[in-house]
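If you are new to this repository, start here. Below is one unmodified record pulled from the training split, so you can see the exact layout before writing a loader.
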Amino acid sequence: MQILMPNISCICHSLQEETDAVTQGYKEIYTIVKDEYFKKHVFRGENRFIRLKVDSIPGYVRPASEIIPAEMTRQEIAFLPAGKISYDIWEQIIAFFKKVMEVKKSEVEAMIHVLYNAERGYHIGVPPQTVSKGSASYDWEYVPTGTSVIVDIHSH
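And here is the target side for that same chain:
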C-alpha cells in the first residue's frame, strides 16, 4: 500500500491491501489498471462505498511496472451495510401498516424504519408516533447510538 495522505488516502496494489486500508480507516482508496484509475470512497458504516473511474490520482506519478488484479477494476456502489434487505422485513412492514389501520379503524399515516447495527443486522424500528390521516409525527431519539436508519417508510 502506498500512502498518499496518512489516514485519508492511499493506493492499493492487491485486494488484501484494499481490505487492510479499509480496516485502517482510509476513506479514499485508489487502484490503477493499465491506464485507468479507480477511486473507492468508503462511507461511514459497514460495507458502504462507491468505486468509480477517475481521470487521475492527485499527487501520484505512476511507475511503469504496476499490475493490479482485475477484481479491483469494476465500478461498484454499495450503500447498504449488509447487502440486500430481506423480503421478510418487507412483509413485517406491510403487516405493521395493516395493523395500524385495523387498530385505528381508519386509513392513517404511520411511520416505520429499517435499522441496522453490527450486532442485530437489519431490523425494524417503530418510533413512538402520533398518527392521523395526513401525517405521522415522531422523534428520532428512539434510534440507539451505533444504529443507522437505512430506510424510513410511511404508509402513504
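Two things worth knowing about this chain: Residues 87-104 form the longest helix (18 residues). Residues 64 and 91 are 54 Å apart (CA to CA).
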